[in-house]
Amino acid sequence: MGEFKVHRVRFFDYMPSGIRALAFNRDIERIAVARMDGSVEVFHCSDRFFQEKIIPGREQCGIEGLSWVGERLFSAGLNGGITEYDLTNQKVKYTIDAYGGPIWTIAGNQQGTHLAVGCEDGTVKLFEVNEDKIQFERNLDRQKSRIISLSWHPSGSKIAAGMMDMIQIFNVETGHSVHRLLADRGVGTSRSKECVVWSVVYLSDGTIISGDSVGMVKLWDDQTGTLIKSHNVTKCDVLALSVSQNEDSLVAGTSEGTVVQFQFISMVLGKDDKEWVRTRTFKNHTHDIRAVAEITTAVVSGGMDAQLVVRPLLDKVEVRSAASALRKIHFPHRRLVSCARKSGLMLFQYPGHLELWRLGESEGKGSSLFVKRNPEKLLHLKVKGEDHIRCSAVSPCGEWIVYSTASKLRENTLHGLKHFLFLFFQISKLPMVLSSANQLCFSSDSSHLFSASAQSSVHIASLSQSGCKFVGTLKPKSGSHQAIHLLAASEDGKWLASANSDHEVHIYNLQTRKAHCTVPVYSSAVTAMGIHPTTNCLFMMYADQQMCEYSIEQKQYTDWSRTVQRKGLHRFWMERDTPCLNVMFNPQNPSHVILHDTYMLCIIDQSLPLPDDKTQFYNQLTLKSLPEEQRKSHSHAFKVCKTFKDILCVELMSDQSLVVVERPLEDVASQLPAPIKQKKFAT
Amino acid sequence: MVETSDIRVVRCGGSKVNLTPPIISSDSRYPFVLCTSGDLVKVYSTRTEEWLHSLQGHTNQVTGITLNPANHLQVYSCSVDGTVKLWDFIDGILIKTFVIGCPLFAIYVLSVIVLSECFQLVSVHLPKSAEQEVEAKEMSAVSSHISKNPSCTAFGRGGEYIAFARHLQLNVYFFRKQKTYSFSLKATDKKGAKNAFTCIACHPTDDCIATGHEDGKIRLWRNFIHKKEYTYSTQHWHHNAVNTLCFTPEGTHLLSGGIESVLVQWQYGAGNRKEFLPRLGGSILHISASSDGQLFCTSHSDNKITVIESSFKVCGVIQGLVKDAVLTDLMIDPRSKALVLNGKPGHLQFYSLLRDKHLYNLDIVQQEYIYEAGLDQFEVVKAAFDIKGSWLATVEERGKKSSDLEFFLKLWAFDERTQSFVLNTTITAAHTDRIISMCFSSSEETTMLVTAAEDSQFKAWCQGADADTQQDQNFWSCDFVGSYHKLNPTNCSFSADSSLLAVSFQEVITIWSPDTWEMLTTLCQPPGVIRDLCFGRLSCSKYLLGTTTKNLLCCWNLLTCELEWSTSVDVSKLQPDPFSENVAAFSYQSKHTDLFVFKPSEPRPLFTNKNVCSEKVHRAVFVPREEPLNSCDESTQWLNRSQLYFLTQNMDLLTFSTATEEDRMLSSSKQLVIDDSVAVTPFYLLLGKHRQQQQKLNTQSHPVSDKPQQTQGSVTIKELLHTPAHVLPAASVLCSMFVNSFLISNTGVQQDPLRYFVHIRLKSNGFSYSVMHLLSISLKFLNSFI
């Protein structure tokens, strides 16, 4: 199946940031994730949890809470401000200060009219949600200690607020406290420590459920203000609670890394006296779980170990399939590495800086080669200002580096500075209106830079020794204004394809600078695409593991693509749980398409027959054992290589060598802070 | 040739008490524990741990007992013999027998019984009828897919549904809806869970099923009327399979037990709050709770029942004969006539077969035993008593599998003061290799121990020969080392008068004189290594018997040093009776064991029993009878003075019982209810004397007229005496009744003083006298007045 020299790169020390908050929007089936570094990500729950949107964070911007109001997303953090996000263009819309010190929690009511935030100074502040902004309305009765957690009664008339050692119930109309529920402190030495009510949930039947630092999940009655039942869940803290929509199931995340499920079950079958009973325990995390969300068919949890775990609830799933399997999302569904194919350079994108490395050289033959020259770090480029990098690219010739941050002021800064081999310089001529770049891409001859911008438009800048010049803008004929998350330029410099988060793929003719055509919209998001260097066909991978090949010149799907659609893909291919992140073509063998996801590298030979469900999918070992003549009849189009694990990027260099950037999860785990020490059996 | 019909093999004594969950009787201040034991159901007192009586009537292994839900003083029992019997367990009376017709393996309340062969769960309608023996033919199958393990089936809330599990599937059958819900688990998962079900318990009031699993998890299932929305919570403490689960009657706690021998009490509905009661002995097999929740019973793998109070305090232990791993021979302690064999790990147990009672354990190894599989720990492998029972020799060893064999020879002296054996001498390197055989000399004067080991030597050990020791105590030391042509000895044996020692070296038997340590002669019978060796007794003491691996049984005449006779039979165990000339030989042939009893002098066997059992017999012992039978029948004569017990490979302890013996037992047991169950106390003697006097009186004075009154009076006495003391009404009630029984008959003047006197006594002592006292007082006066 062809041999490649592989650069196995493990010096990209990418550290995913811990998850701080989750918010699920049932109507649009999106889950928003806030990370420790202040970034906010939006995952599409029914599209195999594809990471649709990423809004990068800033330095010193800790998000403490997330809340959806309708289709609008708000966050609040310890800097004391409430932020609304522009999800179309994937950036911060505005931030207003709540003037109550650090904000610990934010909660919107179900009616979508108000937001409540809990502040350090002990106030619960109500904000009215207007058409385009939010407006401060009033404070509820001020308390002595900070407000840690908030929950609205589904009717919107009451708020339960978790504080130090107690829970207050407020009447929203009067703003006065109705009940004060005292949470017990722990026994023994922890008696002197305050009990922090980390999370409260207000149910429609008047039950208040709280999770606290003593490790208890307590059920309270809001009419009498009494404790109904308490469950000792853990020895450490219960940090997060979430209730299902029909209020028959509750999940609690603990700092031991376990998620405990409670269910509202009738104790005697067929009778109506229901009780909350502790049922299942899920242990998929190693560190504190900071946020849980019970979505329709699964429990989503995230915490300090930076992975988002989707644990399906099989009793709610109608059909068991690959879409309803346990899913752990470790890495972003975006490329963080770009390679200069012709000069052997790699650009690593960290949140706050960029690193440029030169690949090593090797000699000899065999399965592992002797490294003649070690890889070399050429450049460490820190971002100016507080904003984090949104996207970056290095030109194929290796002479240009471009990156974009999220902030308004600094967006669209291309740095240029003559230094050793590299050219760095500043683009200042770009008009402000064409500013923020969501995705960056160079043409294959490094003469042009494509920058995806607002309104699904793409700006073109021409690059030369003298500088960078804005050339023009490509705009789609029609369709949505969602931000573009993928760009692909053809080898001959004639075509450019762009994919946005509304699943639209537009193809532009670069010579005429006009929109050429639009690929028919598919229900799933495009995760990777590439234009074939010889046939100029656009090869697209979708989040649901489907693949399409679209002939740009003929404006239709190719025959091979239609065959794939007709025959369907192999079961094992469909059951993979990470999206394909890159599409490459082997110039020496035009029928080969190279794909990769987090766990494998795959070469599709379009000249071979497609496997059906009966054939063996991973057949390399079988083929090896067969004599030469029989191999042909047994081989099929998919050649999967699982030698590499936890792959962040695979790129085919122009000298026919492959660069595989791995980030082993063990390395990530070893850099995490120590988890809570637990006594394990027989230790 | 020999009539065998009047001798049959029975399970008698030392049976398993841990086969089924024990039952605690309810609603009495002093509850009983009922458990199955072989063909019997035994009733024990929880307070005194004494065996009160047994329910006798089944003709095969009893496999299940359950309280009658309609009457808590009655119990149902089922047996492999295909009958269900209803008993009044307090008085030990069989009320009814229901003949089902096929072997039964478990019984559950509500007349549902697990049936045999294909293991079906069958509901049996027990017909109401006044007759003693009823045939119950009305059966309906509930399920044919149940587990062989009876603890994998349980009834839920008020018998509305039944939950049963097999392998990886849990089924819940609702009787009213006649619908089965089944839930299955995966066999294993990535974390190495083993999910096979091992036991089930149902909550008494809530709809919650607790299941135990092979990897030690406990799952609590709820909402099981839904195909998909069922749910369970998992709790994990046990590191190995959960053997049993039991909810307390109120449903507030769940009890679980496994191989760890720790009783775990989980608080129901409070997650993982739990209490432990550790170090209970063998692994826990069953747990049961009394209906008031005050007492729990656990039965253990070492044939033991522990009674535990609800405050988690052990308040009683009922120990049966431990037969898990018998390495030593079966022996009889000459003093206590108790059976001695391996008991608890590292111990020897003394078990009285006559009273079917565990006497005590003797710690031989004196090291902590660790309950974990795969550890190489010391075990007692050999033990021997001398003829008077004042010395005990033991060999303990470890390292059976590995090459580094370690063993100790220990000698124990009987201490009259403490009435137990105390360690006298420990010999660390008695031989350089494993000890094969060991025996004491049988003479009364000097005690001598001979050990034969695989280092091709045999050693004689004597007491006090070591001059270095200055103390009064006499320690044992080596007296003589003997060997023969560097051959490995296989066996050693003393003659009955200890004048000769026979040591077999492979195929050669050497005869030694223990006085001079001179080799007298060698006997040789070419084919086969000598396996067993024994001298004849009494009139046959001139004979030496030996068995070889080549299936030969040889008899040498020691006077002529010639082979007297030999026969080709594969003898697996040769056991001489110490009280007669008889020798019992167990021979294993074509998958069953035959028994021959013969005298060495006579070629014709006294008794043969074909097909005693289907396994090989390697251990047997003659147990002396307390009082000899006087059967004249030739075939049963050999059982007159002693009884032959043998242990099969399945660790069943079996024995032979004769028809006369059974008749006697039956008659005595019938009498037992009326007469003999009272222990010989001073009061009993008094009563006996009185009765004799009365009988004399009756026969003398009013032989005819007094008879009905006499029986009436004695009925009251019997009722008083045969009801256990703790179930009797208050003494004041009994006394007047008891005294009245004496006073009805005659209208003479004599009774008045008695009545008067008793009243005075009662008044003066404020009714505080015990029944016994009152009775003795009244009787004394009665005697003096009559």
From TrEMBL, chain A:
<dbReference type="GO" id="GO:0000462">
    <property type="term" value="P:maturation of SSU-rRNA from tricistronic rRNA transcript (SSU-rRNA, 5.8S rRNA, LSU-rRNA)"/>
</dbReference>
<dbReference type="InterPro" id="IPR036322">
    <property type="entry name" value="WD40_repeat_dom_sf"/>
</dbReference>
<protein>
    <recommendedName>
        <fullName>UTP4 small subunit processome component</fullName>
    </recommendedName>
</protein>
<dbReference type="GO" id="GO:0032040">
    <property type="term" value="C:small-subunit processome"/>
</dbReference>
<dbReference type="GO" id="GO:0034455">
    <property type="term" value="C:t-UTP complex"/>
</dbReference>
<dbReference type="GO" id="GO:0003723">
    <property type="term" value="F:RNA binding"/>
</dbReference>
<dbReference type="InterPro" id="IPR046351">
    <property type="entry name" value="UTP4"/>
</dbReference>
<dbReference type="InterPro" id="IPR001680">
    <property type="entry name" value="WD40_rpt"/>
</dbReference>
<dbReference type="InterPro" id="IPR011047">
    <property type="entry name" value="Quinoprotein_ADH-like_sf"/>
</dbReference>
<dbReference type="InterPro" id="IPR015943">
    <property type="entry name" value="WD40/YVTN_repeat-like_dom_sf"/>
</dbReference>
<dbReference type="GO" id="GO:0030686">
    <property type="term" value="C:90S preribosome"/>
</dbReference>
<dbReference type="Pfam" id="PF00400">
    <property type="entry name" value="WD40"/>
</dbReference>
Automatic annotation (TrEMBL), chain B:
<dbReference type="InterPro" id="IPR053826">
    <property type="entry name" value="WDR75"/>
</dbReference>
<keyword id="KW-0853">WD repeat</keyword>
<keyword id="KW-0812">Transmembrane</keyword>
<keyword id="KW-0698">rRNA processing</keyword>
<keyword id="KW-0677">Repeat</keyword>
<dbReference type="GO" id="GO:0003723">
    <property type="term" value="F:RNA binding"/>
</dbReference>
<keyword id="KW-0539">Nucleus</keyword>
<dbReference type="InterPro" id="IPR036322">
    <property type="entry name" value="WD40_repeat_dom_sf"/>
</dbReference>
<keyword id="KW-0690">Ribosome biogenesis</keyword>
<feature type="domain" description="WD repeat-containing protein 75 second beta-propeller">
    <location>
        <begin position="330"/>
        <end position="651"/>
    </location>
</feature>
<feature type="repeat" description="WD">
    <location>
        <begin position="235"/>
        <end position="276"/>
    </location>
</feature>
<dbReference type="InterPro" id="IPR015943">
    <property type="entry name" value="WD40/YVTN_repeat-like_dom_sf"/>
</dbReference>
<dbReference type="Pfam" id="PF23769">
    <property type="entry name" value="Beta-prop_WDR75_2nd"/>
</dbReference>
<keyword id="KW-1133">Transmembrane helix</keyword>
<dbReference type="InterPro" id="IPR011047">
    <property type="entry name" value="Quinoprotein_ADH-like_sf"/>
</dbReference>
<dbReference type="Pfam" id="PF23869">
    <property type="entry name" value="Beta-prop_WDR75_1st"/>
</dbReference>
<feature type="repeat" description="WD">
    <location>
        <begin position="428"/>
        <end position="461"/>
    </location>
</feature>
<keyword id="KW-0804">Transcription</keyword>
<protein>
    <submittedName>
        <fullName>WD repeat domain 75</fullName>
    </submittedName>
</protein>
<dbReference type="GO" id="GO:2000234">
    <property type="term" value="P:positive regulation of rRNA processing"/>
</dbReference>
<dbReference type="GO" id="GO:0045943">
    <property type="term" value="P:positive regulation of transcription by RNA polymerase I"/>
</dbReference>
<feature type="repeat" description="WD">
    <location>
        <begin position="190"/>
        <end position="221"/>
    </location>
</feature>
